[in-house]
Amino acid sequence: MEALVSIKKIVVFGAGGGGLDLFGRLDKESKVVAVCDNDSCKWGEYICGHEIVSPEVVFSMDFDQILVASVYWDSIREQLIDMGIFESKIEIDGVLLEKINISRTQPISVVARQRQVTGDAQSQTALRVAYILHEYPVTSQTFVKDEIEAVRNLGVEVIVLAVPSVSKSAFSASGLRGKWVTLKECVEGFRPDIIHTHFVEPHCAAMVANICESLEIPFTVKPHAYDIFRQDYQRANRIKKIGRSPYCLAVFALGYYHHCFLIRQGVPPESVHLVRNVTDWARYFNSDRKKLAPRIKRIIAVGRYVEKKGFDLIIRAFRAVSDSDLRLHVVGEGRLYEQYRSLAEGDSRIHIERKFKTRKEIAEVLKYSDLFVLPCRIDGKNDSDGLPTVLIESLAAGVPVLTTSVASIPDLIRHGETGWLAAPGSLSSLMSCLSDALLSEVSVREQMLSRASSLLNGEFAPIRNSKYLVELWRVLLANR
Length: 480
Prior knowledge:
The protein is of the alpha/beta class. The chain is built from 19 helices and 20 strands. The chain folds into 3 domains: about 10-110, Rossmann fold, CATH 3.40.50; about 125-280 and about 460-480, Rossmann fold (3-Layer(aba) Sandwich), CATH 3.40.50; about 300-455, Rossmann fold (3-Layer(aba) Sandwich), CATH 3.40.50. A hairpin with a 2-residue loop joins strand 3 (about 45) and strand 4 (about 50-55). Helix 13 (about 310-320) runs parallel beside helix 14 (about 335-345).
């Protein structure tokens, strides 16, 4: 992306995804003096280190330009003019306009146009990517396997190197030809254009950075959840140092919360790119099912039995509901199984199953479910989910979702629009949302699923995101 024209003092109007994306493209000479938004619920919160304020507050401030980063740019422009702000001071983010297909003939001032892909980036020469991972494949990380398959289908040559320990010779490889002894020799033998790693595992990400600097090969990295949120990993993963390596072309953020979080951790804003996970939800999950039931009767919860999933909260919330026809089926595996069984003891409506199901098995369970619940929370080690794949899969299967506003989950589940969002760790909030869901009309749930389907087939479409990833790699390499 090209940097914005030099502006001494600017106000960013829009504290959503457009605003976050805009922060990553501001040049060093631009000074943000305020961020405003019409949503009063956001006032007092922070985005990229700036407090979000009311537009009325901005009117009395000293600024040179207001940059509008919102899909409601047209009404915001009129609003600002009505407030008495000169039209010459109002600019609309050009990248945002590209995304929503607004005609360039509009009589507005446009900044930050998208950089054109160079001839080299448009070349169809096969891209060679080496994935270096902590372990592969992992049952709970299906999005990594989906991504690798997707980019291979786009003609990318891929090698997968799994490094489960700090020993540089202790690895398994997928796609190797020939015999190499060490990880470094494997990389040298494959000769990738770029190296990519998922999760900032303390030893794995550091190893990637060291190898890339040694061999002068560029790399990208995509953090997810425990690897950056957990307190002990925050101290060990060195994401700031890795993100500032001269060979790190980009740090990928899977959601808007992650985008801000990585910048707060010290990763240069211009290095952070929003790249959604590639989740092939259409392979196993589809909404070709019978119509939604008039009332919700069968609730399903799926995930590992660990604190951050919050299954104890849904068991407690469910037990407070007196409906004898209601059923709760919790499926998973982990050390808290016995605790959950004890919590459910005495309520025959609750079934706690100890089994980690495959995607095919989960899809089968979802066919007979009326509501999917995943009450994610921040645990005692500050760990939390990022944006669980199972939420995408549930919506794809046509099952309404109730979850919490942890990390980047609100990118997908928007309260009252595509599902229900409770406050993380709050039993009372979860009970309130559960009550709303149980009392909801079929038409309300159908509208939620319709809006969610638009997201799945747009922003979260696997083919769209895999193509974007490959194109981004090419652009990053072409503009080194």
